[in-house]
Every structure is written in structure tokens, then in C-alpha cells.
Amino acid sequence: MMTLTPDLFAGVNAPLDPANLTDLEKRHLPVITAPETVKAGEFFEVTVEVGRLLPHPSERAHFIHVIELYAGPVALASFSPTAVTTSPILKASVRLSKNLGPLRAREACNLHGIWEATKDVAVL
Q1: What is the number of domains present in the chain?
Q2: 82-97: per-residue pLDDT in tens?
């Protein structure tokens, strides 16, 4: 059983060393899949997956309850602890008219707080 780690709730978590992820980071880091470049005003697919690097539990005592995607507000997915999956996934069709900075994904784990990842997408 995993234990509650209060300091993980002090802010938004990100890997300390992205080249050497811990098991905790692998379970919680949102993985963003999106094209490197897109055409302004055209839709493109974005997938955010938690547990892709190392499966995350989905049980009443430990689960992901939300994934958010931002480039401005874009998408939100909510999950329940009884979901069958160990890889919560958010899929969205996104349309950007200009560069707004990187795509940003956040997920919230009931025991390990909020985790964030970013991905640069150039709008041409």
C-alpha cells in the first residue's frame, strides 16, 4: 500500500531529473503525444496518458481523478476509482490559431498530488 506524501501536495510536481525518472514520477507524469508542428486554424489530435511509463493503480485507495490539458483551456477528463484501466487517457482535437506557449497537461492523484508535463508545438 502506498502512503500519503503531504509534501507532494505543496505545489505542482515535475520530475527532478527528467533523464532518470523515479518509479513515482513514471507512474504520475502525464505523457503528451502531439505533432511537433501544426497549421494555424487546423485541428490536430492530442493524447495525454498517465501510467504510460509505469502503470498507475486505479482502485478506491489510489487513483487518478482528473487530467487537464491547457493551451489556454482545452480539455478535461475525470475518472473514478473503479475504472478498469491503469492508464487514464485524455484524447482531444485541438485547434490553435497562434503560438500560445507549450501544451501543458496536469493530472491529479488522490495520494500523490498534481503532476505536470509540457510539450512544445509550433503553430505555422
Answers
A1: 1
A2: 655 567 889 999 999 9
H or E element at residue 89: strand 89-95
Q: Give the CATH number for residue 49.
A: 2.60.40.730
Residue 10 domain-assigned (yes or no): yes
Give the integer Cα–Cα distance in Å for 68 and 42: 21
pLDDT band at 2; cut points 50, 70, 90: very low
Asked whether residue 23 is domain-assigned, the answer is: no
Q: Rounded to two decimals, what is the model's pTM?
A: 0.85
Show the cell assigned to 15.
520530475
For residue 27, give the DSSP letter.
H
Count of alpha carbons within 13 angstroms of residue 116, beta-carbon side? 11
Check: CB of residue 48 under 8 Å from CB of residue 69. Answer: yes
